[in-house]
Structures are given as C-alpha cells and as structure tokens.
Amino acid sequence: MASVLASQVALTACADPIAGRNLFDQQCSVCHRSGAGALRTPAAEIPALLQSGSIRTHRFQLSDGQLKDLEAYLAEVQAAK
Ligand code: HEC
Q1: Which residue, 5, 13, 31, 68, has most beta carbons within 10 Å?
Q2: How far is the CA of 24 from the centre of ligand 1 (A)?
C-alpha cells in the first residue's frame, strides 16, 4: 500500500493533496457531504469529468493546478479504501 501511494505521489509531483483536501472541503463537501471517499469516479477521471460540464450542478471554474491538487487528494483517499 505504501509503495502504491508513493508511486502516485511521484507521478503527480507538483500536485498538493493537502491543498486538494482544502479545495474539496470548500467547494465540494457542501453537496458531497459523505466526503471524497463516497465518490465512485476514479480520481484520475475526475478532472476531465469536472471540466466536461456534464454534471449540471457543477458550475465552478477550477484551474489546472487546482484540478491536479484535487486529483492527488482523491487518489490518496481512494488508495486508502
Ligand atoms: C452544487 C452541488 C455540487 C457541488 C458543489 C459539487 N457537486 Fe459533484 N455532483 C453533484 C451532483 C448533483 C452530482 C450527480 C449525482 C451524483 O452522482 O452524485 C455530482 C456528481 C459528481 C461526481 C460523479 C459521481 C461520483 O460519485 O463519482 C463526481 C466525481 C463529483 N460530483 C465530484 C465533485 C467535486 C470534486 C466537486 C468539487 C470540486 C463537486 N463534485 C462539487 C453536485 C455537486
């Protein structure tokens, strides 16, 4: 488990999962109250999903950096499951 996590962190070296968690708390948890662990979409697909605008209630603009931070945080949450 630790090595899986380490390799994911290495792949997304400039992403900051702590910032991603703050972002989730501020921008997502208001609707996704059961937390990041309850999302069914794999972390790696979430930036594309958010940018696609296919979910009508998702009316926010996140920078590429914010999307990477969010992905790094969600990858950690999902790896821990
Ligand atoms: C205004 C309410 C709202 C906000 C804010 C919001 N969502 Fe959603 N989200 C929804 C709704 C409604 C759906 C579609 C129903 C479902 O599948 O839960 C959804 C679906 C999703 C899905 C697909 C379903 C799944 O379980 O994988 C993902 C991923 C997701 N949201 C991530 C996010 C992230 C990340 C943020 C913050 C950047 C966010 N959402 C903010 C309302 C919201």
Answers
A1: 68
A2: 11
